[in-house]
Specification:
By secondary structure, this protein is of the alpha+beta class. It has 5 helices and 4 strands, in the order αββββαααα.
């Protein structure tokens, strides 16, 4: 009997704690406590532009806050404002006409030209010339600075090369016959 009373008290206490946690979570989501509250004032937008370590636990941080660019010194004992000025306007490019994208054929021709003429990335004029033609071909994607793999026909392995491999049909036939022989014998 005492065990049943103790178990009920523990369950009731756990229920009360969970209900309080749920209620606090709901209030925090609605912003009714200090951290999430922005009544009466506009919330500041903050963007970390750069960070550079200058010592063990010291660094210089550049941040943009509401149109101001701040350079802050951050150390163990605190944060110090080193300088501030107006944040630069973002650089925007306005495109008013259609844009021609390079085709796969032009891309291959450019890679072939690079292979013959030497290493390096194409110049802006070469890229513009390659972009002048439009096609429905899809460009191959590869990381910058790496050469494309030579384009050859796909190699299909022969039965002799696949012998004993999981990809070989003979291997699967042998496995099936071994299982059948175990069941019967």
């Amino acid at each position: 009997m005492d065990t049943l009373v103790i178990a009920l008290r523990v369950a009731l206490s756990l229920g009360v704690v969970l209900a309080l946690m749920w209620a606090l979570h709901r209030r925090m989501q609605k912003g009714q406590f200090g951290a999430g509250r922005t009544r009466g004032r506009r919330s500041a937008s903050l963007e970390v532009v750069a960070r550079q370590g200058v010592g063990g636990k010291a660094s210089v941080v550049v941040v943009d806050v509401d149109g101001q660019r701040l350079v802050l010194g951050v150390a163990e004992h605190g944060v110090t404002l080193l300088t501030s000025r107006q944040a630069p306007a973002p650089e925007l490019t306005i495109v008013t006409g259609p844009v021609a994208l390079p085709t796969a054929d032009a891309f291959r021709a450019e890679l072939d030209r690079q292979d013959e003429g030497g290493a390096g990335l194409p110049s802006d004029t070469d890229t513009a010339a390659a972009a002048a033609t439009v096609s429905d071909d899809v460009l191959p994607l590869r990381p910058r600075g790496r050469r494309a793999a030579p384009r050859t026909n796909p190699v299909v392995p022969t039965a002799a090369q696949l012998q004993g491999s999981v990809l070989s049909a003979d291997t699967w036939r042998q496995a099936a016959s071994a299982l059948r022989s175990r069941r019967t014998g």
